[in-house]
Amino acid sequence: MKRILLAACLMAMARPVLAQELYVNTEPASNMATGSLGIRVENQGYFKPSYKNRSTIEAMYGVSRHLMVHGSVYMSDYYNSSQHFEGGSVYAKYRFLSIDTVQRHFRGAFFAKLSSINNPVVNREITLEGDNSGAQGGVVFTQLLHKLALSGSASYLRAFNNSGNYEISTNRVRNAAAYTLSGGYLLLPRNYRDYKQVNLNLYCELLGKTNPGHNESYLDVAPALQLIFNSTCRLDFSYRTPIYNDMQRNTKNMYLIRLEYNFFNL
């Protein structure tokens, strides 16, 4: 099954044809339109050994053509028997490169993220989306080629002690490197007439992370489908599974469902 998913993803990323850059598991180098506001409601989780899930509410704002910011809050039952508030994070992305031509462009951006989380530290993976307090910084590049979009990123993560007196012990991980490779292809509409047409996008994303000095790493494949309605409302479905895994973490074999609505020209 993993080989089939990986093959399908590589085919989607290699197909030589107007794509969307609204990736499901990663962010592209492109930004939202200036003065626009996006609201996301997301749920993700796993079913084994028991069903656990996390919900996220996220707001995004386009400050300028170069800068956009996000703010997120998290709630889950990963570390409790019932849902509880875990903390929040802020994210900023600055686009420093833009080479645009007809139906294609190449863009580069720096990004940074800070999180404050009140969960106990029990996993070996550093994740700032509800599990760890910490900081992340990195770079992302995105290439649009008509209906195909490709994007890659690399970043460094530093874990802090979680709030609520949850300290990272001496044998816990404080540093990690993350890397992604994403591809998106616009399946429908085949012929664009107006912005009210429903868009159907196919994505495949490779998501990896390593803990330097600990000989721990993983690489996941995450195929996804996306529907865009009226150019303002977006619905995402994704499922990630390991290609290889040597790390204790929550993100293994995880589904994701997200609803997003955008307000333009505020």
Task: Provide a quick synopsis of the model.
The chain is mainly β and about 270 residues long.
Describe the protein in words.
With about 270 residues, the chain is mainly β. The chain has one helix at about 1-15, and strands at about 35-45, 50-60, 65-75, 85-100, 105-115, 135-145, 150-160, 175-190, 200-210, 215-230, 235-245, 255-265. Strands 1-2-3-4-5-6-7-8-9-10-11-12 form a twelve-stranded antiparallel barrel. It has one domain (about 1-265): Porin (Beta Barrel). The chain contains one helix and twelve strands. A hairpin with a 4-residue loop joins β9 (about 200-210) and β10 (about 215-230). The radius of gyration is 18 Å and the shape is globular.
Quick tags:
Porin; 12 strands; 57% strand; twelve-stranded antiparallel β-barrel; single chain; 266 residues
Largest sheet: 12 strands, antiparallel, barrel
CATH superfamily: monomeric porin ompg
Mean pLDDT: 90
How many domains in all? 1
Number of beta strands = 12
Strand order of the largest sheet: 1-2-3-4-5-6-7-8-9-10-11-12
- Please report the distance between the alpha carbons of the first and last residues: 45 Å
Assign the CATH class: Mainly Beta
- What is the annotated CATH architecture? Beta Barrel
Helix content: under 10%
Low-pLDDT segments, ≥5 res = 4-8, 10-19
Query: Number of helical segments?
Result: 1
Percent strand: over 45%
- CATH level 3 topology: Porin
The run of helices and strands is HEEEEEEEEEEEE
Rg, Cα atoms, Å: 18 Å
Helix- and strand-based class? mainly beta
From the spread of the alpha carbons, the general shape counts as: globular
